[in-house]
Design goal:
This protein is α+β, with helices and mostly antiparallel strands. The protein is built from six helices and 19 strands. Strands 3, 4, 5, 6, 7, 8, 9, 17 and 19 form a nine-stranded mixed β-sheet that branches. It is globular, with a radius of gyration of 19 Å. The N terminus is likely disordered.
Length: 302
């Protein structure tokens, strides 16, 4: 897909032209929006996938940034096996996990919960030195309504910036800190705090290692400061960028059903879970695929 950016008041702030796409052979891909998100069908994740199915799911994720599957009655072992098709699995530094499966994070909120997972826009565990590549969430029990998850394209957020702002951000790095996020977060699950939590410095603009596209790589959940500029300037810039990232133009919204699965690319996507279903219960399991060190490639991929 080719994207064009318009400046001033000469039309939409962000445009995305739909290029002709190579058809898929074994899976069906239905886009949620022109910018981000697609539902995948004609695949059963409880069964071993063929090499072509694997290749097409990889491609669908790369092209759409977040992909969704319906009616997938998979076991925990199936969930783990699917994640391992994309790389080694990441272990969360703080969250409770399924008994005997440290790679599988519990997702749970009910009428007595003090909080729900993911209520702030974020990229999963971006405070790690090697942040996760992607996350695969299965919701097992849904509220009767509500509990949607919003996803935002950081490719689109980057492309919609002015050329001057892009130049300003080039080469800047920012601190992603897990300490203020994780300390005490899972106390209600009986999780004891660790002595320290991850803290890392990452580029503000991140180049995707597969697509070569640039994406904004800061988020309200973990990013505390942009380095190399005065703190008040950093605060002002982060405030602007966080607000910019939340533009609905860059988003899709997924309505969960029982046994739905979402798989998002943390390198170019942020997400936010809606806790609008109190007093109902929402239950799921998430595994996370390990990633690599974020980098910025100064060479324009176009």
């Amino acid at each position: 897909m080719q994207t064009n950016q318009l400046k001033g008041n000469n039309g939409p702030r962000y445009r995305q032209e739909q290029a002709s796409e190579i058809p898929y052979e074994l899976i069906k891909v239905k886009k949620l929006t022109p910018v981000i998100g697609a539902e995948i069908s004609q695949v059963d994740l409880s069964k071993p996938l063929s090499k072509l199915q694997e290749k097409e799911i990889h491609r669908a994720l790369s092209e759409n940034q977040v992909i969704f599957f319906r009616d997938q009655k998979i076991s925990k072992e199936d969930h783990i096996a699917f994640g391992r098709l994309f790389g080694d699995l990441h272990i969360h530094p703080s969250a409770p996990h399924v008994d005997g499966i440290p790679e599988m994070m519990k997702i749970y909120a009910d009428k007595d919960s003090p909080r729900a997972n993911g209520e702030v826009w974020h990229s999963d565990v971006s405070c790690d030195l090697l942040p996760p590549m992607g996350s695969i969430l299965q919701i097992i029990q849904c509220p009767p309504y509500g509990g949607d998850t919003l996803f935002a394209s950081m490719y689109a957020a980057y492309e919609a910036l002015s050329d001057r702002m892009k130049m300003y951000l080039r080469g800047l790095t920012a601190i992603h800190d897990g300490e203020p996020v994780y300390r005490g977060m899972y106390k209600n699950f009986g999780v004891q705090d660790k002595e320290t939590y991850p803290r890392a410095e990452h580029p503000v603009i991140r180049t995707h290692p597969i697509t070569g596209k640039n994406a904004l790589y800061i988020n309200k959940g973990f990013t505390t400061q942009i380095l190399g500029i005065p703190i008040d300037e950093s605060d002002g810039l982060l405030t602007y960028l966080f607000e910019h990232m939340e533009n609905p133009l860059f988003q899709c919204r997924f309505r969960w059903e029982e046994n739905s699965i979402a798989f998002w690319d943390n390198r170019c996507v942020q997400h936010r879970a809606m806790w609008d279903y109190w007093p109902h219960t929402r239950v799921g399991n998430r595994i996370t695929v390990a990633g690599d060190k974020p980098f910025f490639n100064a060479i324009d991929p176009s």
